[in-house]
Each structure stands twice: as C-alpha cells, then as structure tokens.
Amino acid sequence: MIAIRDRRGTGACEGCLSVQSRPMSDTHPMLRSVLKSQYHASLAMLREAIERCPPEEWLSTDHKNTFWQLSYHTLFFAHLYLQHDEAAFRLWEKHRGEGDGLSGEPYTQAQVLEYWEFCDGMVDDAVEALDLDRTESGFSWYRMSKLEHQLVNIRHIQHHGAQLIDRVRSAADIGVRWVAAR
Questions:
Q1: For labeling, which of 37, 61, 67, 69 is most exposed (least CB within 10 Å)?
Q2: How do 2-3 and 21-22 pair as beta strands?
Q3: Residue 63 — φ and ψ, nearest 5°?
C-alpha cells in the first residue's frame, strides 16, 4: 500500500482523508506506460546508431565485438527478457546458429533492422503481459523481481546503444539524437 501524506510528511492531507492509501497494483498502468516509453526510447536510439553505422564499421574487427554482433546481441536479450521466462522464449524466425546468434555468418544491417522492428513491435503487448508483482525475474541467472529485471533490460539496451553511438561518432563524426521518451 502507498500511504498519501501532506507536504510536511506528518499524515494524510485534509483533502485526501477519504483516500488514505491505495494498493500498489493501482500504479501498474503508470508503471507499464513508463516501461513502454523507455523501452521504445532506448530502442529508438539503438536503431539510429544501427542506421548511421558507416559500412566499413559494420564488420570492422577493431573492437572485441563487431558492430553487427553488438547490435544483434542487444536485440536478442531485449527480446528474451521481455518474455515471462526462459521457457516462453521463441527465437526470431530469422535467427541462425546456437545461443544468441553471434557465431557464423554476420547479419546484414537490413537484417538487424528487421529484428529491431520485430523487437520494438512486441514491446507494448509484452509489457502488458508482464506480472510486475512477481518476485522472480523468470531467468535463473537473474535473482531479482520481474519489475527490477525490466529496468535492467532497459539499462542493457542503453549500455550497448551508447557503445554503438560512440563507435559511430568516432568512425564518422556522426551524432545520434537523444530520445527521452516515446
């Protein structure tokens, strides 16, 4: 329950006496809206980095992981962690190889952008389906609540998105716009 207090923090304000508290579940529509907005904003910045990647940077081995690998990895785990749990996960129809799909033939920029469309398109329904009260993430390697795990997933997208944005800036002096919300 969330207790409503006056500005001094001493108790319920007079105008709110009839609404002393409300269940946490009443806040879920707002939380879901925020999660969707931040997923879409993070993914939008990732997309712009992918779109602006210079052709010579896409397959460059100047970094531990190529641009395509980091892009695909980010999308793969965004897709995975938007699921109820590991058992509910179904690979993207064009996924190839084992695990996270990073071994073998590189994905083209167009293929990664297609996967981006798939991931961005699933966000709203996936977030609506999440049990945000669940105390388990649904993934044995993450010991945290489902809600906290969604914040970790968004941070993961932002983390790798920022790496890719920096590569684009370094390779071609091209910036990527900031997206605060969607």
A1: 61
A2: antiparallel
A3: -120, 165
